[in-house]
Amino acid sequence: MIMEQTSVERIATQSVGTDRSRWIARPEDLILVTGANGFIGSWVVRCLLARGFKNIRCLTRAVGGSAKLEGIGQDFPASRLSVVKGNLLSREMCAQAAEGAAVVYHLAAGVEKTFPGCFLNSAVTTRNLLDAVMASGSVRRFVNVSSLAVYSNAQLRRGAAVDETCPIDTQLVERFDPYAYGKAKQDEIVREYGSKHGLHYVIVRPGITFGPGKTKIPGRVGTDTFGVFLHLGLGNRMPLTYVENCAEAMVLAGLTPGIEGEELNVVDDDLPRSREFLRQYKRKVRRIRTFPVPYSIFYLFNFAWEKYSSWSDGQLPPVFNRKTCEAYYKGQTFSNQKVKSLLGWTPRVSMSEGLERFCAYAREHMIKA
Amino acid sequence: MADQHATQIQRIGGAKLVAVCDSEPLMAKQIAERFKVPAWFTDVDEMLASARPDVVHVTTPPQSHLPIGKKCFEAGASAYIEKPFTLNTADAEELIEVANRKGVKLTAGHNGQFTHAMNKMRQSVATGFLGGRVVHMESLYCYEFGDAAYAKALLGDSDHWARKLPGSLLQNIISHGVARIAEFLTGDNLVISAQAFSSPYLQEIGQSDIVDELRLTVRDENATTAYFTFSSQISPTLHQFRLYGIKRSLIVDDDHQLMLRFDNKEYKSYMRFFVPPLVFAQQYIGNLASNVAKFARNDFHLPNEAGLFTLISLFYKSVSEGAPLPIPYREILLTSEIMDAAFEQVRINQQNRRSDEPDSEMALRECAGQRPAGGH
To answer: Do A63 and B155 count as a contact with CB atoms less than 8 A apart?
Structure first.
C-alpha cells in the first residue's frame, strides 16, 4: 500500500539537512521507543524514521501484534527497525531494551485503572527502565512522556492559562485519579534520577491526543456514564494535540540540545471549545443525544456525590468529586509557548484539518462514544 | 487486593492499619502514603518484629502463602490469607497445624461466601427452610477474558505468576465457587470427578496451555452431591449457587444479589402455571425492596467489598473475642481437596497434549478421597 506522505515526512524532507547538525543524536544512533505500538508511539517511530534515524528499537507489550510497526518499517526500507516484546516490570527486559541506546522515548503506560496498578505500570516500570538507562551509560537524553492531567488548577481562576509554571497536584488520591497519580509519581522518579544520578531528561506533557485511531469523544467534553451524553462545562477550551503534531514535539524533545531538565506542555494552536467539538462530531460522525450541564451544576453534583460517598462509608466510591470536577471542567486555557520557543515546534496539521481527519475516521468506524 | 483490604480495614471500628509490607519498596511506600499507614517494610520478618501486628493480611501471590503464613504464626500473629489459600491441600494442612500449635487463627480469603445474597441464603438455611439436609448443590462461576486488568495480563505475559500455579487460571479463580460447595458438604470422604479443558476460544488464539473450562462432580459419604461449573465461554458471565434440600430449595444469584426460594407448594391444574409466576414476582420485588432498604442504610456496598468487610470483621471478632471462625478449617481443607482434584485433571490434559493426544480425549477420573501425586 502506498501511503500518502504524512506531515511528518514532509517536515523531514524539508528540514532534514538543516536540523541534523544541531541534534544530540546521529541518524545511525540507536533510539529506543517504549510503548512503540501505541497510538502516539507508532507516530513517534514514524517521525524518527522520517527524520533519517535508521536504528530504532521498539519495545511493545508481549500481548498484541506488531503489524503496525512492521508496516511503518516497510515504508522506510533502509531502516533497521527492531521490535522487542516485553514487560518493563522485568529488569532483564529493561536492560536488554536500554542497551546501547542514545535516546529513549518512554511512552509505555499500563491499562490499569486502580491506584496500585497505575503506579506499578508507570512509576515502578520507569524506575526499572531508568536503572537500566543509568547502567548502560549510553543514553544522552531520556524523554519521559507524562500528561497535562498531573497539574493542579486549584489556584487558577476560570479562563486562566495552564502552563509549565503550574504546580503538580499533590492531592491526586483525593482527586480519585489513578492515571494522573501514576504519571505524577513517574515524573517524580525521573526528576529524582536527574538530581541524584545525573540523568539527562526532558518531561513532555501532552494534552488530549486525537486523530485517526481514536473514535471516542474525549472525557473533557463530557461523559455518558448515566446513559445519555452529558456535555459538561459547555464552553471549555480543549487541550487537544493532533497525534502527528504531538509525536513531532516528542521527537524534537529528544533531539534538541540544551533543554535538559525542562518540562514541556504540548497542545496545538486554535484549541476548540467543547461545544464546537461536539457540534462537529454530531455533524460529521453521528447524531447523538446530548444534555448540556453547566459547570456550576456539575460542581454541585460532584459536591453532593463526594459528601454522600464519605457519609456512606464508600458505598458509592468518590469517582465524582470536587477536585476532579475542577481539574477537568473548570475551564482553563492552555499555553504552548514554551514548547514552541524551546523546540522550534509548530503544529503542522491545523486543528481544523486534524478534526476533519478524526471525524472521518470515527465515522468510518462508528464505534459508540 | 491490598488496596481493597486496606479500605475495608479502615472501615472497621477498633482496627488500626499499623504497617504494610511489599518486596518492592516503591509499592510498599505508595500504599503507606495513600492510606496514611505509619510504617512500611520490604521484609516480612522485620515487619513482624517491628510492628507486632495482631493480624496480618497476606495478599501476595499464592506461592508465598505458606512461608509467609508460617512466619506470621511463629511471630504470634493471626493471618487472613487471600485466595487461593495455598498451592495444595498438604500446604493448607501444614498452615492450619502451625496456627493451631501457636494458638493463633487463620482464615482464607473466600469473601464470596459473605455477599448480601449469600448471607441471606445462610439465614434461610439456618432457619430450616430446606426442611432437612442438603441433597444436591450446583455452583456456577463464569469468567470473562475481556477484563483487561487481569485476563489480558495473564494471556499476554508468559511470566505472570498465575500461570505458574499448578492450576494456572483455575487455581486463582475457582475457590470462590468451590468454597460454596464445601460449606454444605457434611462428609469428609469425597469422590470427585473432573473434566478440564481449554475452550475453543483459547485454542484458536494459541493459548491452549491455559485451561478455562472445568466441570466437577462431588459426592460425600452422606450422599450429598454437587456440581461445579467454571466457564469462560458461557454468556452472560453468571455466578450462581443452587441449594436443593429434601423439602425445599434455594437459588442465589450473586450477580444481582437475589435469593429465590422454591417451596414445595402444589397447585392444582393450570393454577401451577399462573400462581407461581406471581409468587416469584413477589419474591423479586421483595429482593428489590430489601436491596434498596440496605442501600438506604449504607449497608449495601458492592458485593465483593461487602463480602470482604464482613469476612474481615467476623475474623477480627474471632481473634479478639473468641467468636467462632467465619470459615471453619474443615471447609478450607475441603475446598483445597476439591481444587486439587481439578488440577490433577489439568495436569493430565497437559501431559496428553505434550504426548500429542487430542484434548478431546479426556479421562473421567474418580479420585476417591485421594490426594494426587505430589500434592497437586
So the answer is: yes
| pLDDT at residue A247 tops 90 | yes
- Spatial distance between the Cα atoms of B39 and B341, rounded to a whole number of angstroms: 41
The chain B residue lying nearest A62, using CA atoms, is B156
CB contact under 8 Å between A312 and B152, yes or no, is no
Q: Distances in Å between the alpha carbon of A245 and those of A209, A343, A360?
A: 9, 13, 18
* Cβ separation B149–A90 shorter than 8 A: no
Q: How far apart are CA B72 and CA A297, in angstroms?
A: 52
Q: Which three cell numbers stand for residue A331?
A: 475551564
Query: Which strand (E) or helix (H) includes residue B68?
Result: helix B65-74
Could you identify the residue written with the cell 541524584? A196
The 10 Å CB-count burial string (b at 16+, else e) for B61-90 is ebeebbebbbbbbebebbbbbbbbbbbbbb
Contact criterion met (CB below 8 Å) for A245 and A349: yes
* Among the partner residues A116, A117, A314, nearest to B31 by beta-carbon distance: A116
List the one residue out of A56, A42, A53, A54 whose CA is nearest residue A20: A53
Q: Which of A111, A112, A124 sits opposite B27 (nearest CB)?
A: A124
Q: Does B24 touch chain A (CB under 8 A)?
A: yes
pLDDT tens readout for residues B236-294? 999 999 999 999 999 999 999 999 999 989 999 999 999 999 999 999 999 999 999 99
Q: Residue B149 gets which letter from DSSP?
A: I
Q: Is the pLDDT of residue A149 over 80?
A: yes
CB contact under 8 A, B149 and A311: no
Percent of chain B whose pLDDT exceeds 90: 76
The radius of gyration of chain B from alpha carbons, rounded to an integer in Å, stands at: 22
Report CB contact under 8 Å: A123, B149. Answer: no
Q: How far apart are CA A296 and CA A234, in angstroms?
A: 11
Which of A111, A124, A173 has the CB atom closest to B26's CB atom? A124
SS3 content of chain B, % helix, strand, coil (to 5): 45, 20, 35
Chain B: nearest CA to A259, how far in angstroms?
29
- The residues facing A168 across adjacent strands are A151
The answer to whether A171 touches A152, Cβ cutoff 8 Å, is yes
CA distance B16 to B24: 23
Q: Tell me which chain B residues have a C-beta less than 8 angstroms from the C-beta of A311.
A: 298
Average pLDDT of the segment spanning B34-47: 97
Chain A touched by B301 (CB under 8 Å): yes
Stated as kind and residue range, the H or E segment containing B154 is: helix B153-156
pLDDT 10s digits, B102-161:
999 999 999 999 999 999 999 999 999 999 999 999 999 999 886 555 666 667 667 777
Query: What is the tens place of the pLDDT at every residue in A196-243?
Result: 999 999 999 999 999 999 999 999 999 988 888 999 998 999 999 999
For helices B65-74 and B89-102, angle between their N-to-C axes, nearest 10 degrees: 10
- CA–CA gap between residue A262 and residue A193 (Å, rounded): 14
- d(CA A35, CA A51) in angstroms, rounded, equals 20
- Does A17 have pLDDT greater than 50? no
Model pLDDT, residue A22:
84
Residue numbers in A near B154 (CB within 8 A): none
**Which positions in chain B touch A127 (Cβ < 8 Å)?**
26
Q: What is the ipTM metric for this complex?
A: 0.89
Of A64, A90, A120, the CB nearest to B27: A120
Those residues of chain A whose CB sits closer than 8 Å to some CB in chain B are 61-64, 87, 90, 111-117, 119-120, 123-124, 127, 173, 185, 311-315
